[in-house]
Amino acid sequence: MSYLDYGATSFHKPPQVSRAVERAMHVCASPGRGGYAAAEQAARVVFRAREEAGRLFSCRPEQVVFTMNCTHGLNIAIRSLVHPGGRVVISGFEHNAVTRPLHALNAALTVAGEKLFDWEDTLACFDRALQPGVEAAVVTHVSNVFGYILPLEDIARMCRDRGIPLIVDAAQSAGVLPLDFEGLGAAFLAMPGHKGLYGPQGTGLLLCSGDAQPLLYGGTGSMSREQTMPEELPDRLEAGTQNVPGIAGLGAGMAWVRRRGPENLLLREHALLTLCAGKLSEGGLRVFSGPHQAATLSYLPHGDCEEEAQRLAEHGFALRAGLHCAPLAHRSAGTLETGTVRLSLGFDTTREDIEAFCACAARGKIRHPR
Asked: What is the 8-class DSSP label of residue 175?
């Protein structure tokens, strides 16, 4: 199988990740729940993962909150900043992990920037939208559908200058693009563990610059006499037993990414993406590519997107078709009625994978009789 769906999950992992998960299952109990060796070993594993995140994302270990996934972190961040009916600015490429929590709060949304691969338009739209009275801005760093890298640093500067808290959805950029949490000055930055960080599913990180409101309430192994959640991070947001094997694997994945450098991983993957975009275009397919693009590519086949993805799967290519849980992005790009076929590359994608895929995609062309 040629796996081309890293935007959904990194199905293939560096071997260090699975080894760390297995070791944790053998030697770790629950951190903060005892003074015996297995509990203390668990506490060390969890803290080392916080330190690894701090090194990779330029933050302090106590700012690192472990979550179940990126969606979990985004819900915490949004609930911490946005009141029911509050005004929020979002980009035109947000995932349902952003728009559904905001819809549940009946937030008044301003969509800023709906042109693909156009930083000038995106920044002009945010400049107009970030006005007094806005409670928060929520911005995806990279579109999960089209790979569009938004001008996050410039948007963050606008938010800082105007005193508007920023929530960053780094689902597609963590481990793929350099991220400097301290430099951004964002209120929150949410990310999954299982995509570009190559950790297990069911893991995620939320980086917090200040106070946050708990989404879950319960035991933390600290301040047990109190019936309110602890004030200090990360305990305030980590109720219940932690996924220690998952965190161990995530820590190993982050260390692997940091040693190689996200920018180096992206450089290789983007070269393959450029090759793919060119070959698909030569085959007469509509390809969504442009400047400021990460290692994700969408295109329109000559027939139904879902049927084309199924045909490709039967030939050994794993990728995704449809709306990709991001109808707003498809509305912005004009593909809401059709969806797209999406491929997203990872550390072990090869040139041979891309050439074989493009040849197979070209064979799906419908030839009309003259």
From this structure: T
CB distance 361 to 312 below 8 Å: yes
As a whole number of angstroms, the distance between CA 144 and CA 298 comes to: 10
Query: What is the separation, in whole angstroms, between the first and last Cα of the chain?
Result: 37
**What are the backbone angles phi and psi of residue 341, rounded to the nearest 5°?**
-95, 130
Neighbours of 248 (CB within 10 A): 28
Q: Hey, what domains does the chain have and what are their CATH numbers?
A: 2-10+261-363 (3.90.1150.10), 15-260 (3.40.640.10)
43-62 pLDDT per residue, tens: 999 999 999 999 999 999 99
Residues 6 or more apart whose CB falls under 8 angstroms from that of 134 comprise 87, 88, 89, 110, 164
Please report, as a single letter, which amino acid is at residue 217.
Y
Kind and range of the H or E run holding 64: strand 64-67
What pTM was computed for the model?
Answer: 0.95
Within 13 Å of residue 95, how many CA atoms lie on the same side as its CB? 24
Residue 224 pLDDT greater than 90, yes or no: no
Buried b (16+ CB within 10 A) or exposed e, 341-363: bbbbbbbebeeebbeebbebbee
Where are the extended beta strands (E) located within 113-158? 134-140
